[in-house]
Design brief:
mainly alpha; about 80% helix; about 230 residues
Length: about 230
Amino acid sequence: MTLTEHLGELRRRLIICVVGFLIAAIVAYVFYPSILKFFEHPYCESLPKGHACALYVTGPLQAFGIRLNVTGYGGLVLGSPVILYQLWRFVTPGLKANEKRYAVPFVAATMTLFCFGAFVAWLTFPHALGFLHAVGGPGIKDIFSPTSYLGLILALMAIFGLTFEFPVVLVALELANVLTPARLRKWRRPAIVVMVVVAAVVTPSSDPFSMLALAIPMLVFYEASILLGRLFGK
């Protein structure tokens, strides 16, 4: 293909991505109450029985702004299959057969682990909120704004999702002969210390529940990467 043909192909893929995003954003806007209820669930679970579960706004435009933000993020998430597929179709012609064979499982593993990490964060968040409330003492009452609450839970889910990509990176480095299973076994003890420290630093809620929920899977992934590296080596 000529440069002009490449640019034309890129433009076509981008148009499809934009259309897919807009359709997904409309769906997110329509189902906004259900999406907000999904994110409110950890907060409601952390409250004692009988307490009202509600988020409070402090301005007349804040509620509409929250809906637009949820619509935008929801459009990206719901439209991600279309966007990723168009990216894949644009890149595929330049890949060799063995590169395609490795790319498909790596992309599938990346998406699966990211979703799994976000789900673990969502499950852990009620315990984190309970801990943070208990630390403040019985004289402090919680009144959360949607901006701060959604910002925290989305940041936690994103960090968990990105951190759960850890085994994909290690296995890729092993396949590229940058690392070996023997070297990873040799580095096990300092790696454990580093992973625990990283989990404590990157956790936005700074609570022990989220830190352990992030550190323990990383330790398991480290051992799994050693086993996978030995398997691929054979």
